[in-house]
Specification:
The chain is of the alpha+beta class and 148 residues long. It is built from three helices and nine strands.
Length: 148
């Protein structure tokens, strides 16, 4: 249980690095945000995996989120959950993005394991010629718990 000294004026407590990683390890969708050419925020749900410190998202190369990330070189990912019915936790990562092509069966298998998908079964690279992995390398984090 966190003490009152560990909380901000709104009753929130910063997550430890381990708690933040625990939230990222949950098989939940996250929200990926980028900026449009007009300067508006474009936010969409995504499935993702982590590899080391990086966050990896599979998408089509012509998707709005990919075009925005490629143009600006940056993105944000946010994930939120409630644990034990009362402890709302969230983590937001922001930083540079680069693209990796071609995608690999390892990329698909990691998403399959995380989300119970089957994209990697019978993997045929020809089916994914327009796909890319967007790799977000977090430079900054916001990660809080509203209650303990």
């Amino acid at each position: 249980m966190a003490s009152d000294d560990d909380r901000d004026e709104f009753g929130r407590r910063r997550l430890t690095e381990r708690e933040r990683q625990d939230v990222l390890d949950l098989p939940l969708a996250a929200v990926w945000s980028t900026l449009t050419r007009a300067g508006r925020i474009h936010s969409v749900p995504v499935h993702f995996v982590t590899r080391g410190a990086d966050i990896r998202v599979l998408t089509e190369s012509d998707s709005v989120k990919c075009r925005n990330a490629q143009r600006t070189g940056r993105a944000t990912l946010c994930i939120e959950t409630t644990l034990h019915g009362a402890d709302r936790r969230y983590a937001t990562a922001e930083g540079p993005v680069h693209l990796e092509r071609p995608i690999t069966v390892e990329d698909l298998a990691a998403l399959d394991r995380r989300y119970g998908r089957s994209d990697a079964v019978g993997f045929d690279a020809a089916d994914f010629t327009d796909a890319v992995i967007m790799v977000l390398s977090p430079e900054s984090w916001i990660a809080w718990s509203d209650a303990d």
